[in-house]
Amino acid sequence: MPACCSWEDVFQYETNKVTQIQSVNYGTIKWLLHTIVFSYACFALWSDRLYQKKEPVISSVHTKVKGTAEVKEEIMENGVQKTVWNIFDTADYTFPLQGSSFFLMTNFLKTEGQVQGLCPEYPTRRTLCSSDRNCKKGWMDPQSKGVQTGKCVQYKGNQKTCEVSAWCPVEAVEEVPRPALLNSAENFTVLIKNNIHFSGHNYTTRNIYPDLNITCTFDKTQNPQCPIFRLGDIFRETGDNFSDVAIQGGIMGIEIYWDCNLDSWFHRCQPKYSFRRLDDKTTNAALYPGYNFRYAKYYKELNFETRTLIKVFGIRFDILVFGIGGKFDIIQLIVYIGSTLSYFGLATVFIDFLINTYSSQCCRRYIYPNCECCQRNEYYYRKKYETIVEPKSTLKYVSFVDEPYIRMVDQQLPGKSLQHTKGKEVPRPPKDFTDLSKLYLPLHEPPPTPGQLQEMQLLSNEQATCRSSDSGSSDSPSWCQCGKCLPSQLPVPTSRCLEELCCRKKPGACITTSDLFQKLVLSRQNLQFLLLYQEPLLVLDPESTNSQLRHCAYRCYTTWRFSSPDVADFAILPSCCRWRIRREFPKSKGQYSGFKSPYFQQI
């Protein structure tokens, strides 16, 4: 994008020039990729409803657990162990929790009749003692049940433990009852009331519908919309056994997902229930498995505050509500279509990659000889890509008449002639013969006689030998291969190296002896015509005529031999051609300046 320096720059428009390739293979690839992209875009637009504006759900949850259990307990009464059957209802086994969760007690351990006083600690590795020296007064262990008094007292039998000030008797470490005391809780049911709201669409609904059968129970296939769940079925859905989890407790997640289509022509907004075990059920017993906590029931007995400590094991149910609500929005549809259009460019990128493989020498060496279709890429590559070399002071191009390519030399020449410098081989640009129509030559050349062979080619070696014997010099430099070159007269050694160049790489005929060189480069009428063609009002005064014609002849030769104007700007004329042009259009006085780069100072 050009910088806006004036009002004219503001009202400019730029666009890319496109190369159109007529190819069945690449055309098939293009339409195949376009069909894939179009099919995927339509499928994603419909299945994911990408034409809608989506809003997250706002939710509230309320639960009600129903069920009654008969619990068998073993108690001590007057030193005699008795079995007591107790009835537990909702108020006994449920506990209020924060947020959208509820807790169900499935097992417990009781320590009854605790009062504050002094008593021996429960025997553990840290509390066992043999004398008062093993106990420290005022010491509190996070694992202890109270504060040590500094005395070592008898616990039971021969065991002695440190005395503590605590709720006595202290809680004993007992094995959890197996099976769970409330093992029948798997038949309990829970009603989940879930209200949701989409603020962006001003839409509110809930998971309980007016025609709900209150005696239903959730079933994934038969009754998937019923909000009443049997606890045992929830664990069955996750592959767990309720009786096993009820012993130590655990955490279960109930997921409610709302995927609501709020469009009037296809309205649908129903919850989808799923279940997930949230605690680590693989943890061993030594790493605190399950879910448990303690709470106490306080009462007074003989005016002493007394409590019953209960260690509760149970299952915490976390209800997780998430979802989205979508409604048609024209802006979202336009944005999606706009973003999808960019994917159609994948076909262009992929085909360009296939064509560009021609630039890889590895592909040209190993793949192209075995792939007939790939060989056409050379033609496509040359039509599509244009290589631009960075214009540097060391950049030069050389063309030998006995080589089908030109050479690019990008290095300094310290004391080394350009003739013997090895450069990079560059394909010769294709010639545009339509420019020959601009020459004045056809208007003045006599028509060919019948039977005369017109060949626009270099002389053969035999013909060149005859002509070179007339005008050649035996004092040609060592680097000359045609016998027509002359030593450079420039004073700077680096500049002289540039002029040490012949028209041939190997010995043979000189290009200056060809008829085409005479007609395209040395014809005064043609050169004057080209100058006037470029500048119709040009005044060819006697003083500057030779200079203008000489430089026009230089340009005619480089355009003829190098074809591309960009390459011709950095082309070096052979010594034989340069001196032949100078003899035809000599300089009246002074020294010839030599090669001048079009972008840099004289080399």
Give a description of the structure:
With 603 residues, the chain is an alpha+beta fold. The chain has helices at residues 7-10, 24-47, 90-93, 231-237, 242-248, 330-341, 345-356, 361-366, 377-384, 441-444, 461-471, 493-499, 515-520, 524-534, 542-562, 565-568, 575-584, and strands spanning 52-56, 58-66, 69-77, 80-88, 94-95, 101-120, 147-156, 159-168, 189-198, 203-206, 228-230, 250-261, 271-277, 292-301, 304-328, 395-399, 406-410, 424-426. Strands 1, 5, 6, 7, 8, 12, 13, 14 and 15 form a 9-stranded mixed beta sheet that branches. The longest helix is centred in the N-terminal third of the chain and has 24 residues, at 24-47. 26% of the residues lie in helices and 26% in strands. It has 17 helices and 18 strands. Helix 2 (24-47) runs antiparallel to helix 7 (345-356). A hairpin with a 2-residue loop joins strand 14 (292-301) and strand 15 (304-328).
Topology record:
Blueprint: H1 7-10, H2 24-47, E1 52-56, E2 58-66, E3 69-77, E4 80-88, H3 90-93, E5 94-95, E6 101-120, E7 147-156, E8 159-168, E9 189-198, E10 203-206, E11 228-230, H4 231-237, H5 242-248, E12 250-261, E13 271-277, E14 292-301, E15 304-328, H6 330-341, H7 345-356, H8 361-366, H9 377-384, E16 395-399, E17 406-410, E18 424-426, H10 441-444, H11 461-471, H12 493-499, H13 515-520, H14 524-534, H15 542-562, H16 565-568, H17 575-584
Parallel strand pairs: 12-15
Antiparallel strand pairs: 1-15, 2-9, 3-4, 5-6, 6-8, 6-15, 7-8, 9-10, 9-11, 12-13, 14-15, 16-17, 17-18
Helix pairs in contact: 2-7, 14-15
